[in-house]
Specification:
Structural class: alpha+beta
Radius of gyration: 32 Å
Strand order of the largest sheet: 3-2-1-4-5-7-6-8-9
Helix content: 25-40%
Strand content: 5-15%
Number of helices: 27
Number of strands: 29
Largest sheet: 9 strands, mixed
Length: about 850
């Protein structure tokens, strides 16, 4: 309306702009342009590159990532196949009774491909003069698309209109004088599926919008949809579902907390709503007699992550057969590399979007046969890797034995209805005890969340600041200057109120300055206090067990990362709430319980922190009482360390380890437990950064270790103290702000032989570096953190505020050698794990 009125154009200052556009378009050879434009389907991919140039941020916000042509073709072809083979419809998509819906159709790629397939089928069947009419009938009466954004909606109409014109069946006028139109509607696909109980109250800005809404609702409420296909949006931050959309996804949340013990979950990701919509429409609303097909490409998180257990249970019970084509390409799970270490880009990496998307993706094909069935669906799973995965996917359509390449998954309650098959070696994993079942007590780690006010790499600086904090003579203004972070207001923390409380209830105690294990291999100083809210979470139960000589086995319930890395750690220090990802629990090896004098800290009883079942196991193997024998008390935890650092254990049981507390196989014999615990003690020694390890960090070094991470100068000279600053770009932030990792600088150089490991030079600054760091050492990850890189990110000069000390530079060398020793120990750890897995004690029973 604004563009059609000359007076409006002038007021909007658009006349000159439109004149420029007219002049440009008048120079185009229209016939030549549209001949190429239509034949190459350019319109389908117009909107993404346009937005990439015009407004990249808007493109990201709207999730404008177009599905590559190979994937669209694959999904449509697979749907056509299963309509024939599974639902007994010989003509597949060309069957006049097959109603197709793309609920998030974008520019119409899937609908155009369906029309193309129908056209090919009609041609192969000896199409006559009615073929074009049949195709137009399909486009207008049984192929539907819903889209929320006006621009792609317009492009979808244009694309379908151009295709029909090419095929000799242009859209015209109906008998009643209205225009013929494709079945694409501007609507929210997630609402309007049930007739409104009350008159529609929403007032839309134009009558045409109301007509569009009503027409879309008519499709939703009356059409018997057989196929739902597409690429639903995936946005984990799309917002909590409200109203009708909230009711839609609610079934996937039922029992998550009470039945499955999953307290943190994100089921408000948009793609989850579209799965629920498809399930309800295809598999539920028609009862047991309903039949149909769902084919989505989406975020692959639902395939096995714990939060989606109820969703998977629903899908496996409501559908009869499910195929999962896992396209990988996840930046966190695999680092976008194949198991062989080759590039594995996102399936959405295109010339217009080379980065693709960060999340791994999967194509799901779900079939409902329309017959009453009991039990769960047959689930087939296949992995796709590498730069050619899209072409490989498409080529598989011509493979008559393609189904044989899928692995069978068995969704059960024991596997949390995982759609990914169990890996070799995982058969008995569910029978092993979790680390939590082996202990009597565990505690979450401490959380400071005070901008580093109570934690410091320099213990003397922190001790001096806290002495002033508890000194009534030191004014608040002075204190805020000495330790600025302690004066920053935060949720639940009012700085001056808390200080007043501290001064009235507690005095300065030098003994409360303790070592804190912040990250693997990263120990700092912390001042612990019982004053409420001084620490965000002070964990008094954990503090009670922090005494000289006690140790902590650290693990977590659910992984915060998908990488295959050890989920356990071992330390003698107070543990931070982020020492490993996510929400780690510290399990003390010993417990002190009965106090003689609470203020003096004397206790009369020390016991082993072992569950009754763990004690029964040790007794059955004829070990002494763990409460009176320190070696016995440590055996299970040392053994668990040896298992937790075995690559074979981590690989064999990756899915189970990610989803819950790690389960540990217990050796069936006394000898096997002693041997495993001895290996675990070697692991514990290598993890203890403040106790030298002969041959690794002290004494005569092992030949294979002494050349690792040697501090070197670029020109070969000696490094001077003024060159100790870490400025290679490893991190940024600090001073109360979150520390963000940086790219840093590493230089790789090829090994002398192809079978030799890769080595790196890791740079301190432009003048110095740590030479000869094995790639496996640099990549070594514990609990979700890349150990060396994480340590460096917190020591960058702009984060730390100073240069490194000589001891800190040497610490990096020691760290690399400890990790190298761990890597070299792995074959023995694997042999130990494999032997124990083959002869395991039946927990709560006998061998």
């Amino acid at each position: 309306g604004q563009l059609s009125q000359p007076a409006k154009l002038k007021a909007l200052h658009l006349t000159e702009v439109l004149d420029w556009a007219t002049d440009a378009l008048n120079r185009v050879d229209e016939a030549a342009f549209f001949k190429t434009f239509e034949s190459t389907r350019s319109i389908q991919y117009f909107y993404e590159p346009f937005l990439a140039a015009f407004d990249p941020e808007l493109r990201k916000k709207l999730g404008v990532w177009y599905t590559p042509e190979e994937i669209v073709k694959y999904q449509v072809a697979r749907v056509d196949q299963v309509l024939q083979t599974e639902l007994g419809l010989p003509d597949g998509l060309a069957d006049p009774n097959v109603v197709v819906l793309d609920p998030c159709c974008g520019t119409g790629a899937y609908l155009v491909e369906v029309l193309r397939v129908i056209g090919e089928k009609l041609k192969n069947q000896g199409a006559d003069a009615l073929a074009a009419h049949q195709l137009k009938l399909a486009a207008t009466t049984r192929l539907f698309g819903f889209e929320l954004l006006p621009a792609p909606y317009v492009v979808a109409h244009l694309q379908i209109g151009l295709l029909l014109r090419q095929l000799g069946a242009p859209l015209g006028h109906n008998a009643d004088g209205t225009d013929e139109r494709a079945g694409v509607y501007l609507t929210n696909a997630l609402t309007g599926w049930e007739p409104a109980k009350e008159p529609k109250s929403a007032v839309l800005p134009f009558p045409e919008f109301e007509l569009e809404r009503d027409a879309a609702d008519h499709v939703k409420q009356t059409q018997k949809i057989i196929v739902i296909i597409g690429n639903p949006p995936y946005d984990a931050f799309g917002g909590v579902a409200l109203g009708e959309e909230q009711d839609l996804v609610a079934p996937y949340k039922e029992g998550l907390i009470k039945k499955w013990g999953i307290k943190k979950f994100n089921l408000d990701d948009l793609y989850v709503r579209f799965f629920r919509l498809a399930e309800r429409r295809i598999a539920e609303q028609g009862g047991t007699a309903s039949a149909g097909v769902v084919c989505y490409i989406s975020n692959a998180s639902y395939v096995r992550e714990p939060s989606f257990v109820v969703m998977r249970e629903h899908l496996s019970r409501n559908f009869d057969r499910i195929w999962i084509d896992n396209l990988n390409g996840d930046s966190r799970e695999t680092g976008k590399t194949t198991p062989e270490g080759l590039p594995d880009p996102s399936a959405f990496s295109t010339p217009y979007n080379k980065e693709g998307i960060r999340k791994g993706t999967a194509v799901a094909l779900l079939i409902k046969h329309g017959k009453s069935s009991e039990g769960t669906a047959q689930v087939k799973f296949r992995q796709w890797w590498g730069v050619s995965k899209r072409l490989d996917l498409l080529a598989s359509l011509e493979d008559s034995q393609s189904d044989a390449h899928y692995e069978i998954a068995t969704p059960t309650a024991a596997s949390r209805f995982s759609f990914k098959p169990k890996q070799s070696g995982q058969t008995d994993y569910a029978k092993w005890p979790t680390v939590a079942e082996l202990a009597e007590l565990r505690s979450d780690g401490v959380f400071e969340k005070r901008g580093g006010a109570l934690i410091d790499i320099d213990g003397k600086t922190l001790l001096g600041a806290m002495k002033k904090y508890f000194d009534r003579e030191v004014s608040w203004d002075v204190l805020a200057t000495v330790r600025p972070a302690i004066a920053v207001t935060a949720s639940g923390y009012s700085p001056q109120v808390i200080r007043a409380k501290a001064l009235s209830t507690e005095v300065f105690q030098p003994s409360q300055l303790v070592r804190l294990a912040v990250r693997p291999f990263d120990n700092r100083w912390a001042y612990w206090s019982s004053v409420g809210s001084l620490w965000n979470r002070s964990r008094p139960a954990l503090w009670k067990q922090c005494w000289a000589g006690n140790k902590f086995f650290v693990s977590r319930r659910v992984s915060g990362t998908n990488s295959i890395a050890s989920p356990v750690y071992f330390t003698g220090y107070l543990t931070d709430g982020q020492i490993i990802s996510v929400n780690p629990a510290a399990i003390p090896v010993f417990l002190r319980t009965k106090e003689i004098n609470a203020q003096s800290g004397f206790f009369e009883e020390t016991t082993a922190n072992l569950s009754s079942s763990a004690r029964t196991y040790l007794t059955a193997l004829a070990f002494p009482n763990p409460d009176t024998n320190q070696e016995t008390a440590e055996l299970i935890w040392m053994h668990a360390l040896a298992i937790g650092y075995s690559p074979a254990y981590l690989s064999d049981n990756a899915d189970g380890i990610r989803e819950n507390w790690p389960r540990i196989p217990l050796p069936a014999t006394r000898e096997a437990l002693l041997a495993s615990a001895a290996l675990g003690r070697q692991v514990a020694a290598l993890l203890d950064t403040e106790t030298p390890v002969p041959g690794v960090t002290s004494g005569t070094l092992r030949p294979e270790l002494k050349t690792i991470a040697v501090v070197s100068r670029v020109d070969g000279g000696s490094l001077k103290p003024e060159e100790f600053a870490l400025t290679a770009g490893w991190g940024s932030g600090g001073n109360g702000k979150p520390v963000m990792p940086g790219v840093g600088r590493v230089e790789r150089y090829p090994a002398s032989h192809s079978e030799s490991p890769q080595f790196l030079d890791v740079y301190l600054n432009a003048n110095a570096y740590w030479q000869n760091v094995p790639q496996s050492v640099w990549d070594f990850t514990i609990g979700g953190y890349q150990v060396m890189k994480k340590w460096l990110s917190y020591r960058e000069q702009r984060v730390l505020g100073r240069a490194l000390t000589l001891a800190e530079i040497m610490e990096v060398t020691a760290m690399a050698r400890r990790l190298a020793a761990l890597v070299l120990l792995q074959p023995r750890l694997d042999d130990n794990y494999n032997a124990i897995a083959a002869d395991t004690w039946v927990f709560n029973g006998g061998p």
